[in-house]
Amino acid sequence: MQCYILGFLFINKLKLKIMCNSIIINLGEKEIGTPREFLKHFGFMLEKNIDKTGMDCCLCNYDLEKTLNENKIPFKNDCGDLYVGMLEKLKWT
Ligand SMILES: [Zn+2]
Q: Does any domain span residue 78?
């Protein structure tokens, strides 16, 4: 829960961050927030049968960890955001 509290303080401080799950590429170089962006970056669909409107919705309704695991993409989960890419360069407290 500590993770959640820190995240909450962070959000309050910046008042920018949307409370939605996203996939962060490398050190924040790119942020993936929709199935369309996911497809563009990874080259495959997040889940089969996502309709046109679903392509631009947020990622909260999808099991991102399962998809990444199934496709053998290494990631780290931080407060619901999944980091992909240069994991060794990220600092984890
Ligand atoms: Zn959302």
A: yes
- Cα–ligand 1 centroid distance for 31 (angstroms): 14
- Ligand 1 centroid vs 58 CA: distance in angstroms? 5
Backbone angles phi, psi at 43, to 5 degrees: 85, 10
Residue 43's domain spans which residues? 18-89
Q: Is residue 11 included in any domain, yes or no? A: no
Query: Can you tell me the distance from the alpha carbon of 14 to that of 36, in angstroms, rounded to the nearest whole number?
Result: 27
- Structurally, the chain folds into a number of domains equal to 1
Closest C-alpha among 27, 13, 44, 36 to residue 81? 27
φ, ψ of residue 64 to 5 degrees: the values are -65, -40
The residues pairing with 87 across neighbouring beta strands, listed in sequence order, are none
**pLDDT tens, per residue, the chain with 93 residues:** 445 555 555 544 444 455 788 999 998 899 999 999 999 999 999 998 888 888 999 898 899 999 999 999 999 998 888 999 988 887 765
